[in-house]
């Protein structure tokens, strides 16, 4: 991570808001195996998966979130979904992002499936655990069969199972960033095709009572529903525009604690 200490404030320099990644994990992103089973339909596997998810993972992750002071605001907006599944869109600001949405203190009784890069497939045991917990690996560019299977599985989880699918449209991690980066509309094709709502969630940073590391507060914004008089392409554009606007406006209007200052390289020359 290209940070510099300037007057006790960390500064990160970036050049491309859409492509720069400050994630230090460094795992490879292998291709998704041919015929990867995105849908979990085997009843026996689902039984043990439910035990792992609800009985072990959610309580453990929930305790982790409570210990790290992660708060959730505006849970009342979940009621506006009226029992429907939804596609969650959130900013990507921490390695722990993928876990906090699965914590039992956030979404009672609903599974959260996570769309992400195929990093975990490079780890034999971890990849099986991740699949059981709802991880959906992105196929590499050009893998049409797995791309179709992925889209079909997300539609299945959201519409038939009334679960959530979590998407980070910014794609890359910018730790402790306090704004919403511009993101493309590609991933909004999923809710447009499923005719399903989008639930924007913004992670904001607040100053800790003790120490220097900021604490997270997750704000659940109003859900955005596809419009009946629009085509799939039009709804894709509409959902993207409204989600980006709502998230950026909320982040800009919410006071936050800036732990790392992000500066574009051209501004520093």
Give the arrangement of secondary structure elements.
Blueprint: E1 3-6, E2 9-14, H1 43-67, E3 71-73, E4 86-90, H2 97-100, E5 112-116, H3 124-132, E6 135-137, H4 144-160, E7 164-167, H5 189-194, E8 198-206, E9 215-220, H6 232-253, E10 260-264, H7 265-268
Parallel strand pairs: 2-10, 3-9, 4-7, 4-8, 5-6, 5-7
Antiparallel strand pairs: 1-2, 8-9
Count of helix runs: 7
**SS-based class:** alpha/beta
* Low-pLDDT regions: 1-8
Number of strands: 10
CATH class categorisation = Alpha Beta
Beta content: 15-25%
Helix content: 25-40%
Query: Termini separation (Å)?
Result: 20 Å
How would you characterize the overall build of this protein?
The chain contains seven helices and ten strands. It is of the alpha/beta class. It has one domain (3-268): Glycerol-3-phosphate (1)-acyltransferase. The strands form two sheets. The chain has a seven-stranded mixed β-sheet with strand order 3-9-8-4-7-5-6. It has a three-stranded mixed β-sheet with strand order 1-2-10. A hairpin with an 8-residue loop joins β8 and β9.
Short overview:
The chain is of the alpha/beta class and 269 residues long. 32% of the residues lie in helices and 19% in strands.
């Amino acid at each position: 991570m290209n940070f510099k200490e300037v007057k006790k404030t960390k500064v990160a320099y970036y050049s491309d808001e859409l492509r720069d990644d400050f994630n230090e994990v460094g795992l490879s992103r292998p291709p998704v195996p041919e015929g990867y089973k995105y849908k979990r339909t085997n009843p026996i596997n689902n039984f043990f998966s439910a035990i792992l998810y609800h009985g072990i993972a959610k309580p453990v992750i929930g305790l982790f979130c409570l210990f790290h002071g992660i708060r959730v605001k505006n849970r009342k907006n979940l009621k506006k979904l009226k029992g429907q599944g939804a596609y969650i869109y959130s900013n990507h600001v921490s390695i722990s992002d993928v876990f906090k949405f699965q914590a039992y203190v956030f979404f009672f009784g609903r599974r959260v499936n996570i769309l992400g890069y195929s990093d975990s497939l490079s780890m034999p045991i971890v990849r099986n655990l991740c699949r059981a917990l709802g991880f959906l690996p992105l196929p590499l560019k050009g893998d049409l069969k797995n791309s179709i299977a992925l889209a079909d599985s997300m539609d299945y989880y959201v519409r038939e199972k009334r679960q959530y699918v979590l998407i980070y449209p910014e794609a890359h991690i910018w730790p402790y960033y306090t704004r919403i980066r511009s993101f493309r509309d590609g991933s909004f094709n999923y809710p447009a095709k499923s005719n399903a709502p989008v639930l924007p969630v913004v992670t904001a940073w607040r100053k800790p009572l003790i120490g220097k590391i900021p604490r997270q507060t997750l704000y659940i914004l109003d859900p955005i529903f596809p419009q009946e008089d629009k085509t799939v392409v039009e709804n894709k554009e509409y959902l993207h525009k409204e989600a980006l606007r709502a998230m950026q406006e909320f982040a800009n209007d919410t006071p936050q604690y800036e732990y790392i200052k992000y500066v574009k390289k051209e501004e520093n020359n």
